[in-house]
Specification:
Blueprint: H1 3-29, H2 44-77, H3 80-89, H4 95-128, H5 136-167, H6 172-195, E1 202-204, H7 209-220, E2 227-231, E3 242-245, E4 252-256, H8 257-262, H9 265-280, H10 283-305, H11 309-314, H12 322-332, H13 334-363, H14 366-379, H15 388-394, H16 400-408
Parallel strand pairs: 2-4
Antiparallel strand pairs: 1-2, 3-4
Helix pairs in contact: 1-2, 1-15, 2-4, 3-4, 4-5, 4-12, 5-6, 6-10, 7-9, 9-13, 9-14, 13-14, 14-16
């Protein structure tokens, strides 16, 4: 039996089993009694609704994962990758164009398979719990815009990678690494101005108590902001959030309009302080460095396996090609990707605790950070008692109950 075939098949099954097991354990781990730390925000009805939402989302994800895993296994085992390659080869395209076509067809197939689940999640599941505000027109436009960006930006990256693999020999992985790093940094730099506004409107926060408070904190914390913007998050969902975009001298904060409606100025200042904490504690710099190094490792490993005859035999390929090898490598890489994701989530959760601590210390008002987290949790119907396996596998942020308990230590 082909070792690559075994690794890929087993990794697909193990990933599915872990997801199902995680959901089952979390379902059993749910507590009927509301944790006392959140009794001031949650009432019995809201708590019951949050558990109902958790059950519904877990059932949905289990069905979604099961169907998608079965389809990719069937496609893999029955030689679907070779069949698509035959279609592309029949067109007698130049190598790079053939590669873009091959990967594009697989991407379209993946999109078509996932579309019914996206529609159900948006217009049925999220609608049932009062979160969805997306119109059919917005949904379609989002997919069209996202598709155009993927074709353009993804096409440039894939074409560049295929070109360097063909032309630069042993050091191709270094060139691919360099190209990906520059494109990633460039996108991060231009996203606030050119990409994000394609999907949402960003308006400067009006003068007033909130803006004064945010600017005062940024100045006190010696943190330069180039702008404070309000994003029309309510265009798609009632859930609230806030995030930083850009880097260097183009740092700006975006506040969802839904966040502003539900949080007090003191609580929003605490949210800003948390985000500033990520910068002050070096989390952004460390995350960027980690991402760059991980990309380098990926391309180095790719250079080892991308032309392996055994890898192509595992997929029943009649011909070897760099573009197919690129796809197959990322399926082979899946087990390592899962391990790295677990480690990344572990580090991320540690960073969230540190950013919470910075917010509590820098504002001198841990109660506002606690109340902000509680309100966000209640408004988003967060699961208060996820199982540790679910947290380990999926959570980049600690459960809100753990964050509240950690912040409580700063209360005088």
């Amino acid at each position: 039996m082909n070792i690559y075939f075994i690794i890929i098949l087993v990794s697909l099954i193990v990933s599915w089993v872990l997801g199902v097991l995680s959901n089952l354990l979390t379902l059993r781990h749910m507590e009927s009694t509301l944790p006392p730390e959140l009794a001031d925000i949650y009432d019995a009805k809201t708590y019951a609704q949050s558990q109902d939402y958790a059950r519904s989302t877990m059932r949905f994800s289990t069905v979604n994962d099961t169907v998608s895993t079965l389809l990719i296994i069937v496609f893999f085992v029955l030689g679907g990758f070779n069949w698509v390659d035959g279609l592309v080869r029949s067109c007698s395209l130049p190598p790079i164009i053939a590669g873009l076509t091959y990967i594009g067809l697989l991407g379209v197939g993946s999109f078509v398979v996932g579309l019914p689940f996206e529609l159900y999640e948006t217009f049925v599941l999220e609608n049932r719990f009062g979160f969805n505000t997306t119109t059919v027109g917005t949904f379609i436009l989002d997919r069209v815009k996202g598709g155009v960006l993927t074709v353009f930006l993804g096409g440039v990256l894939i074409a560049g990678v295929l070109y360097f693999i063909q032309q630069t020999g042993t050091w191709a992985w270094v060139w691919c690494w360099t190209l990906t790093t520059f494109l990633s940094l460039g996108l991060t730099y231009v996203a606030p101005t050119w990409i994000l506004p394609l999907f949402n409107s960003f308006k400067p926060l009006e003068a007033g108590e909130l803006r004064d408070a945010l600017e005062h904190f940024a100045k006190t914390a010696d943190f330069e902001l180039t702008g404070i913007f309000v994003m029309d998050g309510s265009k798609r969902s009632t859930k609230g959030n806030a995030f930083f975009t850009g880097f260097g001298k183009r740092k700006r904060i975006a506040l969802f309009d839904t966040l502003i409606k539900t949080q007090s100025p003191e609580e929003i200042v605490a949210v800003l302080a948390h985000e500033v904490g990520h910068a002050k504690r070096g989390h952004i710099r460390k995350g960027l460095l980690s991402s760059v190094l991980k990309t380098g490792v990926i391309f180095y490993l790719m250079s080892i396996f991308i032309t392996s005859p055994g890898l192509f035999a595992a997929f029943g390929m009649e011909h070897m090609s760099l573009y197919a090898g690129l796809v197959f490598f990322f399926l082979l890489y899946a087990p390592l990707s899962l391990v790295l994701a677990v480690v990344s989530n572990l580090i991320s959760r540690k960073h969230e605790f540190e950013a919470d601590a910075f917010a509590a210390e820098s504002t001198g008002n841990p109660a506002s950070m606690i109340s902000a987290l509680k309100k966000l949790s209640a408004n988003n119907l967060s699961n208060l008692t996820p199982h540790s396996l679910t947290v380990w596998l999926e959570y980049s942020h600690p459960p809100v109950l753990e964050r509240v308990r950690a912040l409580s230590r700063f209360m005088k």
